[in-house]
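Researcher: I'm preparing a figure for a lab meeting and need a structural model of a single chain. I don't have an experimental structure, so a prediction will have to do for now. The sequence is pasted below. Please return the structure as tokens so I can convert it later.
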Amino acid sequence: MDIENIKDQVSQIALCVGEFLKTEQTKLQQSEIELKGTRNFVTHIDMEAEKMLVKKLEKLIPDATFLTEEGTVSYAEGKYTWIIDPLDGTTNYVHGDTPYSVSIALMKNKKMVLGVVYDPIANELYSATEKGKATLNGNPIKVSSHNSLTNGYIGFGIPYSLDGRGEKILRNAIEQFRKCSFRIKGSAAVEICYIACGRSDAYFHSGLSPWDVAAGCFILECAGGKSTDFSGGDNYIFNKELVASNGSIHREILEEIIID
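Model: Understood. Here is the structure written out token by token.
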């Protein structure tokens, strides 16, 4: 398989679906918005975008399986698996806000080999196929060298269901407010890619799903960054816990904010 050729085709698919999302956002009516849970929105646009992705991606690798947010296809294990989120940042989207993104990852024998994330409003396409080959709009990217919480630029998210541990993590973060800058952007895939291109230094969130993080974390790794679960392990894609960073600030995030 020519993974670079696949990446180029996936990038075009992401651009196409992103343009669809951008066009449909201007026409979205409140009556078309549904709730999957508290603060957890979904629209017919999510469904249509996912169907578009599946239809186009299954032509690239006909025997590949899919792991999708909206469940338009049933998941089954296979040699190749697409992990896709047609609209990461739905809450932003339904409120006419940004960012939001299309996130596409390809896993081969349970190992990530391709990641593409597209922010249609900023017109920023992030992609990667291996270490040292992470790009933003075709230009090479790498993580920042900032190595301390002091003056750090940190992203985070609040899960839909906030348990006692999550509240403790937020309190720990509050204690760092005078030391560094925190931001909530609302699209995990985009926020992870911000670390990959050096805009942000770290990001943490619990309650995330594989399609939220798979592509972004692979791009981050290829740009020289690091992703772990809250205990510092490597089960961050399926364990609903993520600390993503430039690597230099990672241990301090774990020790001062997560404190597992």
